[in-house]
Design a protein that fits this description.
single chain; globular
C-alpha cells in the first residue's frame, strides 16, 4: 500500500490524537477553542472581581459536575450508583475546595495553576498530534502518548517558570520543580477521569460543552492540580 503524503499523515494523526490505531475523536477544534476561551474569561473575571464571586462559580461548577457524573452513571446502568456517585462527589468537591482556598490566599495562585494546566493541555495535544507514536496508557486513554507527555512537560514548565518568576516572585528552579509536579498532577487527573469513563462505558460525561464533552471532561486535569498547588504554594 502506498504511503500517504506528509499532510495526509498529519491530518490522520490529528484525528487520532497522535497515536496510531486510536479511534477518531470527533471533536470540533474550533468550537473547543471558543468554548475554552470563554470559560477562561469567565473564571478569570470572577477570580479577580471578588473571591466570593469565584467561590460561587466553583460551587456551581461542582454541583454541575457531580450531577453530570451521577447522570452518566445512571445512563450507563452502573450498579450501586449512590455509592459510586458519593465517592465521585467527594473527589470533585474536595479537590475544587482547594481552588477556593488558593483564591482566598491570593487570586494569582489560581491563575498561575490554570496557566500551567492550559499549557500542559496545549503542549500535550500539539506534540501528540505531530509526533506521538508511543501510547502512554493504552488501556486507559489510547490517545495519549509519551511524546505528548514530553510536550506537556516542556510547555507547562516553560509557562510555569515564567509565571512563577514574573508574577509569584519565585526563584526559577523552584518554579520549574513546582510546574513539573503540577503537570504530572494534571495528567494524572485526566487519566483518572479517562479510567472512570472506560469503566462505565461512556465517551464523554455529557454534551454540555461543544468540543469538550461535559464539564467534568474539561476540569478533570484542573481538579487534581489544585491540592498539589496548595501544598506547593501555601505549605511549601
Amino acid at each position: 500500500m502506498r504511503r500517504g503524503s506528509p499532510a495526509t499523515d498529519v491530518a490522520r494523526s490529528m484525528s487520532t490524537g497522535g497515536v496510531p490505531g486510536a479511534r477518531r475523536t470527533g471533536r470540533n477544534l474550533g468550537a473547543a477553542t471558543v468554548v475554552g476561551v470563554l470559560l477562561a474569561a469567565v473564571v478569570l473575571a470572577a477570580l479577580f472581581v471578588d473571591v466570593r464571586v469565584f467561590s460561587a462559580l466553583v460551587a456551581v461548577a461542582v454541583v454541575a459536575a457531580i450531577t453530570e457524573f451521577a447522570v452518566a452513571l445512571r445512563t450507563a446502568h452502573v450498579g450501586h450508583v449512590p455509592a459510586v456517585a458519593l465517592a465521585g462527589a467527594g473527589y470533585i468537591a474536595g479537590c475544587a475546595a482547594f481552588a477556593v482556598l488558593l483564591a482566598d490566599r491570593r487570586p494569582a495562585y489560581v491563575a498561575a495553576v490554570l496557566a500551567v494546566v492550559v499549557a500542559n493541555d496545549v503542549g500535550g495535544y500539539a506534540v501528540g498530534v505531530l509526533v506521538g507514536r508511543h501510547p502512554l496508557a493504552p488501556r486507559v486513554s489510547p490517545k495519549k502518548s509519551w511524546e505528548g507527555l514530553a510536550g506537556s512537560l516542556a510547555t507547562g514548565t516553560a509557562v510555569g517558570v515564567g509565571v512563577g518568576v514574573l508574577v509569584l516572585d519565585r526563584v526559577w528552579w523552584e518554579a520549574a520543580v513546582g510546574s513539573v509536579l503540577l503537570v504530572m498532577a494534571a495528567t494524572a487527573g485526566d487519566l483518572v477521569e479517562s479510567w472512570v469513563k472506560r469503566r462505565i462505558g461512556v465517551k464523554d460525561m455529557s454534551r454540555l460543552l461543544p468540543g469538550h464533552g461535559g464539564l467534568l471532561d474539561r476540569i478533570d486535569s484542573i481538579l487534581l492540580a489544585m491540592p498539589v498547588a496548595w501544598v506547593l504554594l501555601v505549605l511549601g
